Amino acid sequence: MALQALRGTTDLLGETIAQWSAVERTARRLARTYGYQELRTPIIEDAALFLRSVGETTDIVQKEMFRFEDRGGHDIVLRPEGTAAVVRAYLEHHLHKTQGFAKLFYLGPMFRAERPQAGRFRQFHQYGVEAIGSESPWVDVEVITLCMHIFRACGLSDALVWLSSMGSREDQQRSAQQLRARLAPRKTELCQECQARFEKNVFRVLDCKNPTCHAIAWEVKGSPFVLGETSQAHFDEVRRGLRDTGIPFDDTKVFARGLDYYTRTVFEVRAKGLGAQDAVAAGGRYDHLVEEFGGPSVGAVGFAAGIERLLMAIDAHGSAPAPTPRRGLYLAITHPPLMAEGFRFVQQLRERGVVALMDYDGKSLKAQLREADKTACRFVAILGEAEVKQRSITLKDLEEGSQRTVTFDAFVDEITQQWKPACR
Ligand code: HAM
Fold first, then answer.
1. Is residue 20 within 6 Å of ligand 1 at its C-beta?
2. In the 8-state DSSP scheme, what is residue 143?
3. Which residues pair with residue 164 across a beta bridge?
4. Tens of pLDDT along 161-170?
5. Which of 341, 302, 327 shows the shortest CA–CA distance to 398?
């Protein structure tokens, strides 16, 4: 059988790469506009990082991590998410001392051994931002606004924020007691795993994928999280800020986040047309994680967007991506011994940063012109014996549908000048 990419993983190529690059460019540009700096962390990490942050009773840690022992006996995982690694790096590089408040973003592959289906992959890509070092509700507003700004700039305008608050750690203790009291009479109806979760971490029953557990956990309407006065005031301020900024949100939806580190604000951004996996982005506050990793007690908030899901949502609902503009030059040769002459021109253009292509296999002129069209070059220059004799070259502009003759001496300058405005 022919070798194939593993289930839940994909090769990205052709037009898909153009779409990915456009999204990545927009995400990077807007992150910088909001003052976030890029951070790249390794793909492999110590398993303990995720056990201590995402949580030992979560599905991610219990079932979905690609986890292995290396030859030195270290417990390694392919990172399932970015937040824990960003906090580790924040402390490892002493950003808490040098920057205090650090605004960071990342783009890269994450790995979860989930059952692959539409919108759910084993290797997927996240664009994430983390603002570490502030408890201000305005940072929550900034992070959610940035997320929606990126979606809008990528052509996805109908995404909606589901917003909620899980309360502080103290609020969560009270909420856990209430939830336990409510679930206790039906505990034996829960799956084996949830019966264990009931004792260890009752909130995890809320995101069990078993339909019976799900129905029991959510049979009471409204949020399972009870907010104390301070958490309520924080949440009210986040909502006020989002309203002032014109970010549409729905705070009536109840949902659970499947990672343990969250406190107070949590949100998911949902898009239509994605079926069951409709969360394009998700995030929230994690005010204790820095301290739990041995750092100072500082607040933090962030989100991560799934690039695959974002592109699926754009395909389903957003505006069609603009066609790739024609760029650069294709030098067609009608006489193979002119290869060296042609290569010299092409290389001069490349040295000046112009995309320049040519054929090295002695293809027919027709085949070369087809190639020029396929590779979306803007100009085609045809070089033959007559051109060498006259020291001038015929230049076709495929975008404008025009044709002119340019001397050899002016050729490279002329193409470079045309290139500059198109590149900006
Ligand atoms: P998460 O909800 O696990 O949160 O993932 C965030 C986003 O990643 C999801 O909304 C989805 O778009 C995408 N995603 C997750 N799993 C898959 C998958 N198997 N296939 C395709 N896309 C997927 C986090 O990861 C948190 N670290 C977010 C965060 C950042 N919270 C605070 N800061």
1. no
2. H
3. 266
4. 999 999 999 9
5. 327
